[in-house]
Amino acid sequence: MKFNTHLQNLPIYEAGKPIELVTREFGIDPKDVIKLASNENPLGTSKKVISIIKEKASNASLYPDDSFYELKDALANLYEVSSKNIIIGSGSDQIIEFALHAKANEKSAILTAGITFAMYEIYAKHVGAKIYKTKSKEHNLKELKELYLAHKDEISIIFLCLPNNPLGECPDAKEVMDFISIVSEDTLVVTDCAYIEFAKFKDSKKAINPKELISKFKNTLYLGTFSKAYGLGGMRVGYGIANTEIITALHKLRAPFNITTLSLAAALQALNDQKFIEKTLKNNLEEMKVYEKFAKKNGIEFIPSYTNFITFVFDKKQNASQIADNLLKKGIILRNLKSYGLNAIRITIGKKKQNKRVLAELKKEI
Question: pLDDT > 90: what percent of the chain?
Fold first, then answer.
C-alpha cells in the first residue's frame, strides 16, 4: 500500500514508559515504581477535581457542551480576554496540529530552537513543511532572528517553547516580545507556555501575559495546558488564546466534542482550586533545589530549569542511556534524551520521598 511520501521519514513520538509496562517487563510491584519521565504532577490530581469527576461520571454517556462555554468563560476571566479569543483542544498539542494545518504546507517552513518539543517538527512533516532550527540547542533569540530574516519568505510559523521542553531554559518575556516585534504580521508566532506556571513562580520576568501578547501582536497564539501544574495529564485538556481571526481559522479544523464530558468538568474545577496549584509550585521549587545541589556536588552538568523537570547532561565517561536503563530495571522511570541527540536524562521533579530514592540510586550509577 502506498502512503503519502512525507510519511516515509517521519519519526514516531516516543512517550515516557508507562508504569504498567515496567511492572510487566521487570516484575516490579506497581507500588514500588517511580515514574518521573513524562512531567506529570507528582502530587496527582486535586481532591476537588476527583470529587467532580465522580459526581459527573453518570454523564459519561453524554457528549459535552461543544461550545465549552463555562471553561472558556473561566479562562477568559483568568486572563482578562474575551471567550471569543479562546479555543479548547485535546491537550495543547492538538492546537499545535491545528496551527500547522492552518498555516503551513509543502511550500513553507517552520522555525524552532535547536532542541525543543518534538511535535512541532512531527506535525510540520504531516503537511510537508520544511524545518529550520538554530545551531544553539536552547532558545537563542539572536539566532532565531537571523534565521527568520534569512528565510522570511518561507517561514509561516515560529514556535517558541516557553519554558522549553525538554531542556527547561526560558528567555525573559521582554526578550521574547522584542523578538516578536521584528516578525511579519503574516507569520504566526506560537508561544507554547505549557510550563509557564512554574516559570513565573520561580522568576516573574519569565511570565508571558496572554492579554498583552495578543493585544500587541495580532499574529500570536498563546498555548496553555491543564496537563502539568493542574495535574490533569490523563484528561487531555489544552487551550489556545489569540485574536478572533486566528481562533476562527483554527475552529474550522476542530472536530466536534474534541474533549470529553469528564475532561471538561475536571478542567473547570481545577481552575477553582488554586491552593492545589500553590502546593504544586512550592513542592517543585523546593525539590528542584535538591536536584541542583546533587548535580553540583557530583559534578553533573544541568540546565537551569523553569519547568517541573530538570535535565542532567553527562560527560563522555558516562552513558545516559545505560544509566536510564539500569534505573528502569529498579522501577525508576526517567526520560532518556538520546532521541534528541543528547547524552542526557530529563527527570520530572517528584515528591520528597521519590526524589530521595531516585538520587540515591542515581548516585550508585555515576
Answer: 89
